[in-house]
Write a structure and sequence with these properties.
The complex is a heterodimer. Chain A is built from eleven helices and twelve strands. Chain A is α/β, with parallel strands linked by helices. In chain A, the strands form three sheets. Chain A has an eight-stranded mixed sheet with strand order 4-1-5-6-7-8-9-12. Chain A has a two-stranded antiparallel ribbon with strand order 2-3. In chain A, a hairpin with a 2-residue loop joins β2 (52-53) and β3 (56-57). Chain A is globular, with a radius of gyration of 19 Å. Chain B is built from five helices and 18 strands. In chain B, α2 runs antiparallel to α5. The chains are: A alpha/beta, B alpha+beta. At the A-B interface, α1, α8, α9, β10 and β12 of A face α1, β1, α2, α3 and β3 of B. β10 of chain A pairs antiparallel with β1 (25-27) of chain B, so a sheet runs across the interface.
């Protein structure tokens, strides 16, 4: 027979533990990637669903079934990464989150910055480029200091950023789409169906690269991404890729944005697009969509300077470090 | 139960599940790693950072023109193209080059001669000018038959941005031999800075820091960004510095400060060189990037003791490190 009072006590303890977790864990702030319409900017449901695929939910998994608090940002993903409705909107929303304000779905961080809270940005694809721009223009010495939002406040309050499939150096897919490529390179999934203004600014040409217009990030940016090809599209990308973004970009490498990298030779932490602030985590057998929707629990591999240790020391690059783990699960064990 | 303990249990459960096929893995503590990194970075200001040993010069690296490539998978043909710089100013001539790699696939035979075209674009759709790239050893093409097709384009005044601004120019290149066809887009910045470096520099030590003073001529009031890289005389980059200024028209001396602790820690009394310096007009996107000037100043030799021994102590990074310790410990 159940002892009801014992059950109540246990339930109460569980609630207390959950509340304690939310207070101790960082608040995760989710920044989505490029869009082909303005839905994520005008609709919370669209912004939230960016992270969902059927019953799979990146936010739920990354927050350990909501034990950690979270905030979902929605911005205009059709605009260039540096504009007011993209970087400006993201910066304002992050400050709102750190002030204890709610996102458009009513979710708020367990503690505000003033209450001692800490905040991690979780960004996918173009969200990574926006993070670079904001965190690299937070100081009055930076070229585009507080360009269209409170970048300085964001940088002072955020503890770190994790990008998954970040288009830090642009995408060769965007080059192909804007070049009106033909043959095997004319098909790209999702966000680069056409050469809109956001896509134009996500090419791999130096004159549109975020590193040209930002300094080293004020807070560290940690890098993970996928190496599962997408048929057709991957044929247009150099080295390993997630079907939309090539490794040189996912891992924010210095040198050519079209350099050919794989899990064994991806650029290490000493060869990044800025002199400091970018660090490798690992790579997953996920494509660009899988990286943000928790749908593909698959192999994860170490990359140079990656975060996984094998028997007490850093695993060799390309070592299989997990046989079945989504990026959302991976993030959930980082805090 | 602390968050860290629960995280360890969760990690352990996941790791145990895969123990059969892989080595025993653990995750380094991200929060602790970040906190340690911030304590190190906090020793220097945001406006002046040391460069890692064997680092590349970040200013030069950022200005490298991109090589855009398409094709080449499964032994197929491949098109690569580039311009000779990543930024130009009014009156400059843009050298455009494209290389065709025929690939190694057996079925690559059968195509005719390659026809290579370049189009200058004002955006995604607006073609300003087009030209054929040739591999004939004439004009802009250095050597006939080497597989590199070349052409040049004079940037017309009609296309130029307003003073103090810049435009992103798309460069769409296509290659077709009747059997294979490739096309992609690169580009460059058409820049019209509102100020320029005048070629006069001097160095002083002030408050324990090395100040490089640069003379600039401002044509139009605005916001300007000065950045530079200090290197050894044998060209090893040592430190990066940047500063932004609001300036009125006229001539000014402006300061680029290298934090003294960086130089003190080097421990050498030898002169250093300002390996790269550039002045850009900022305040609107895209920024009007200025030219990169190279090796413009050799500093006076100074004793390490002339530079500050004090860590800068960036409060924001130290605060972040403290909060991250909380994340790591629960």
């Amino acid at each position: 027979m159940f002892n009801l009072s014992a059950v109540r006590r246990a339930f109460g303890l569980a609630l207390l533990l959950a509340a304690g977790d939310a207070l101790a864990a960082p608040c995760l702030i989710f920044v989505h990637g490029k869009q082909t319409d303005t839905n994520t900017y005008t609709s919370y449901t669209a912004a939230r669903n960016y992270w969902v695929n059927g019953s799979n939910d990146f936010v739920r998994t990354a927050t350990k079934n909501y034990q950690a608090s979270y905030y979902v940002v929605g911005y205009n993903g059709t605009r260039p990464y540096w504009e007011s409705q993209s970087a400006g909107e993201v910066a304002n929303e992050i400050v709102n989150a750190t002030n204890g304000g709610a996102d458009a779905g009513g979710n708020r961080c367990a503690q505000s910055y003033a209450q001692g809270g800490s905040f991690w940005i979780i960004a996918h694809s173009m969200g990574g480029v926006i993070s670079d721009y904001i965190l690299g223009n937070n100081d009055s010495s930076d070229p585009n200091y507080n360009y269209n939002g409170p970048y300085d406040t964001v940088a002072s309050r955020v503890s770190l950023a994790i990008t998954t499939g970040g288009a830090h150096r642009g995408s060769e897919g965007a080059d192909a789409v804007c070049g009106q490529s033909s043959g095997g390179c004319n098909w790209f999934a999702g966000w680069i169906q056409d050469c809109d203004d956001a896509t134009y600014w996500l090419r791999s040409s130096s004159d549109v690269q975020v590193r040209t217009y930002a300094s080293a990030p004020a807070k560290n940016i940690y890098l993970t991404g996928g190496y599962e090809a997408i048929f057709g599209a991957s044929a247009c990308l150099s080295g390993e890729d997630d079907g939309v973004v090539q490794y040189a970009s996912i891992f924010a490498c210095d040198g050519s944005a079209g350099a050919s990298y794989n899990n064994s030779n991806a650029c290490n932490n000493s060869y990044k697009q800025e002199a400091s602030g970018f660090f490798n985590l690992d790579a997953a057998h996920e494509n660009h969509g899988d990286e943000r929707d928790d749908s593909d629990s698959d192999t994860r591999r170490q990359i140079p300077d990656g975060i996984w240790n094998c028997s007490g020391s850093s695993c060799s690059p390309n070592t299989v470090v997990q046989s079945s783990m989504t990026t959302a699960e991976f993030i959930s064990i980082l805090y | 139960m602390t968050t860290a303990m629960k995280g360890a249990l969760l990690s352990g459960a996941i790791l145990a599940a895969v123990a059969g096929g892989t080595q025993a893995q653990t995750l380094a503590n991200l929060a602790e790693q970040a906190a340690q990194s911030y304590r190190e970075q906090a020793r220097y200001p945001a406006w002046s950072q040391p460069l890692a040993r064997d680092a590349v010069n970040p200013i030069v690296s950022e200005r490298e023109p991109a090589v855009i490539s398409i094709g080449g998978r499964d032994g197929g043909s491949k098109l690569s193209f580039w311009s000779d710089a990543s930024r130009y100013e009014p009156g400059d001539v843009v050298q455009i080059s494209a290389k065709i790699d025929p690939g190694s696939a057996l079925d690559n035979d059968g195509g005719g001669d390659w026809r290579v075209q370049a189009e200058l674009m004002a955006g995604a759709d607006a073609v300003l000018s087009s030209l054929s790239l040739k591999d004939d050893g004439k004009g802009a093409d250095r050597q006939a038959g080497d597989g590199v097709y070349s052409g040049e384009l004079l940037l017309q005044e009609a296309w130029q941005p307003a003073l103090g601004q810049a435009k992103n120019m798309g460069l769409r290149v296509s290659a077709d031999n009747g059997r294979d066809s490739h096309r992609s887009m690169g580009g460059f910045l058409y820049s019209r800075p509102a100020a320029e470096l005048m070629g006069h520099y001097r160095d002083v030590v002030k408050d324990g820091n090395l100040l490089i003073q640069a003379k600039v001529e401002v044509a139009q009031a605005g916001r300007f960004h000065l950045s530079g890289v200090l290197a050894t005389l044998d060209a090893a980059p040592l430190a990066f510095a940047q500063q932004s200024f609001e300036l009125e028209p006229g001539q000014h001396w402006i300061d680029l400060g290298f934090y003294g602790l960086i130089l003190r820690e080097l421990g050498a009394a030898t002169p250093l060189q300002l390996q790269s310096v550039t002045l850009s007009t900022v305040g609107s996107m895209p920024n009007a990037l200025g030219r990169v000037e190279s090796n413009v100043l050799v500093t006076a030799p100074r004793l390490p003791s002339q530079f500050t021994a004090q860590p800068y102590g960036r409060a924001d990074l130290l605060e972040a490190a403290a909060r991250l310790q909380g994340d790591g410990e629960g």
